[in-house]
Structure formats: structure tokens, C-alpha cells
Design goal:
Low-confidence stretches: none
Helix content: 25-40%
Strand order of the largest sheet: 13-12-11-14-15-16
Largest sheet: 6 strands, parallel
Radius of gyration: 20 Å
Distance between the termini: 23 Å
Order of helices and strands: EEEHEEEEHEEEHHEHEHEHEHEHEHH
Shape: globular
Amino acid sequence: MKVFFCKNQGGKEYKSREQPITTNGRSIIKIKQIGICGTDIHAIGGTQPFYSYPRILGHELSGILEGTNDAEGFEMGEKVTILPYFNCNYCVACKNGKPDCCMRMQVCGIHTDGGIAEYPTVPSNSLVRGKGLSYDELALIEPFAIGAHGVQRARIEKGEWVLFMGAGPIELCTIEMAQIAGAKVIALDLNEHRLQFCKEKLNIQYTIHEAFGNISEAIQEITYGDLPTVVVDATGNRKAINDGFKLMAHGDSYILIGLQKGDNSFNHPEFHKRESTWMRSRNTTRSDFEHVINSIKMGKIDPANYITHSADFNKPKFIFESWTRPENEVIKA
């Protein structure tokens, strides 16, 4: 079978490997669709802090269950996706019901080989049933579930003002999940195309271009002087993260979904006087997957809105870089 391989920073190539055979604890998927995540782009660029080379990329996938010995309740040939966070089940996080931050976490396509391959193998207990969704929809469950987990972590409530420090793919997915929770959303970004997407596809009333004069005053005007009670960053951009501290209401929560290398810092008195909560959201859980699947089936999310670019399996080596250029207006590839 053919696989798409990231051999080192910036190094991408196709390789041939023997097609896998079914073993206990592992199942084989015939890939039909796979989403390209910012994590994949960062891995190629050398800015993903948990990544190890060499590695087959990809974790947002859908396909057909091709082989299994022990996937209880699944049938050969059915549509599936996976929960791509392979946890140990016995560390303190797992025992406390937080498998998404397992101490021995193995993320598909980061710590262990991923899905940009014709027939990847995955732990049988990671399989998720298709439940009548299309291959495109199934390949987009994971990024929406990342957003769902962030919303759950932040405990966003109906009517609450939530500021998003960007409008990239994960932010857009999180915006949808925040709106399902009843949030009033403000989207801030430098990319006019993405802000337009927020307005036209997600019905976001309040968007702000980062080149706008006084952003704090603009947000105070929208929130009637109160500022947002939740700030969300999924960019992983240090400047965006630090700017968010200046835009928080007193008693607010600031949740980081994005990831970057290095340290963050903040002004302690400003943080203290607000009695702010600063938290991380890492990965996602099976219950988040179920929430997203149900939301799609109920018509609350239309994944087709997001897919703006696609390519044959033989093309990614040559077009990855073009998908990162703002002028190409990629929402999801």
C-alpha cells in the first residue's frame, strides 16, 4: 500500500509498505476521506511540540472497516471514523475520567502513524460508528469535537458573550459548538475571507478585523461595556493569546485550544483583579464525538460548508504549502 510520509521537518514523500493484516486489538480501515489539520501543517513545518519524525500524518479520517477480530458491535464494510487519541486506561487522568489528557497519550499521526495511507491500522477500541453520515461528514467529526470539548471545558452558557481570537478552522468549528450552547459570539481575525465566512455561513453578527482601530472599545460597545465573559484562542499564536488578556471581562474564563512551542506570560495584577480562570482544552472525548454526530444528524451543523479544497491522494506532497496561503482562501482541505 502507499503511504504519505513526513520524514523530517519539511521533508514529505510517498512510500510503499506491505498491506497490514488483522491482529488482536487492531483493526484495518480502508480510507475514503481525510481532513488536513493545522497539526499536520505544523508537523511539516517543525512547530508541533509533541511531534516525532518520521511519521505518517493524518487523524481526521473516514473509511470502511476492512478488517477486525475484536471490534465488538461493528460489521465488516461499514462506515467508520476513529477517536484518534489512544489513551492507556490506567494513569491518574484516565482513572479520573479524563482520557483526553492521558499521561501516556499516543495521538494518531503525531506520536504514532496516522491515516494518510490506503489501509492504516488503529486500536479496535478507537473505532466510531458512521451512523448514516457521509464520508465527508465523518472526516470532519474530530475538529468539531475539539470545539465541543473546549466549549464543555469553558462551561459556556446560553446568552454568554464569547470572544474568539481568530477564525481558523478549529475556531470556526468551536464557534458552531458555542452557538449550539447558546453563546453570543464575537469573531476577531486578520483574514477578511474568514470573517465573511463567519457572517455568511455561521450567521455571526459581530466580526472585527484586527486592523480595526481600538478593538477593546469596539468589543465594549458590542457587549454594552461589559467585555466577554469567555475568551477562546485556538490559533496557538503567541501575540493573539497575549492580546486576549486585555479583552477579558472581570470574572471571566480564558480557554486555550490552540498550541504553540514555548512559554506564555501575562500581567499578574491585570489577571488577579479579574479573578480570571485560565485553562487548557486538550484533544476530545467519545462523548464529544457523540454530541457532534447528533448535532449533524439534527441539522445544527452543515459540514459541507467547510470543505473548500480537495485533492487526490497522490497530490498532497505538492499542494500542502498552497493550502497554507491566505490568498487561496482555504477553510478546510
